[in-house]
């Protein structure tokens, strides 16, 4: 894997090709897992296929703050490991659907963070490429939506070690002020 510096040097076509290859690799890695999962900023839903005819009493499902185990009683667990991030156990649930699927709903503790994976030892997804469902964003009124988009932007910037939108605004304001006052020395100025 090459670093982000290389990525910045690529042409638009090369980036699109790399993104497509990354998405395909990611999709293949995720498809190989014994479950599927989706997430919103606030929660994660995991779907685990089980043999047809499975009832809740046949299952061993353990949901802890930072650990998830799902399996059939007396057999090797289908999934078992440390969760990517902490969850609210009391708000997380599981059910069996049509006696062939276990649906697990996990409430995130940090509701402003995308998960890279469900279990830490499983392949990660690139959270910077997540596009929240537009319908969900467009359901929000303009102000809330702007706030959510800003939060997501800030979150991505932080992950990449780049300034958040507020910091960018401050830097821009300071730059304008400096241009307007060339006689002042800002070399020691700290932006707080």
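^ structure tokens above, recovered residues below v
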């Amino acid at each position: 894997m090459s670093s982000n510096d290389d990525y910045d040097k690529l042409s638009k076509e090369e980036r699109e090709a790399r993104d497509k290859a990354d998405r395909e690799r990611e999709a293949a890695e995720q498809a190989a897992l014994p479950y599927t999962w989706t997430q919103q900023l606030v929660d994660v839903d995991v779907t685990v296929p089980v043999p047809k005819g499975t009832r809740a009493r046949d299952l061993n499902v353990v949901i802890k703050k930072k650990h998830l185990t799902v399996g059939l009683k007396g057999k090797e667990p289908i999934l078992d490991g440390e969760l990517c991030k902490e969850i609210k156990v009391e708000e997380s649930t599981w059910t069996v659907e049509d006696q062939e699927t276990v649906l697990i709903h996990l409430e995130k503790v940090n509701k402003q963070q995308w998960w890279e994976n469900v279990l830490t030892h499983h392949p990660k997804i690139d959270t910077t490429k997540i596009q929240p469902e537009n319908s969900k964003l467009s359901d929000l009124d303009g102000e809330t939506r702007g706030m959510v988009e800003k939060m997501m932007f800030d979150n991505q910037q932080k992950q990449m070690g780049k300034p958040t939108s507020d910091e960018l605004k401050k830097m821009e304001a300071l730059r304008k002020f400096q241009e307007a006052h060339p006689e002042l020395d800002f070399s020691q100025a700290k932006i707080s």
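Residues 12-31 form the longest helix (20 residues).
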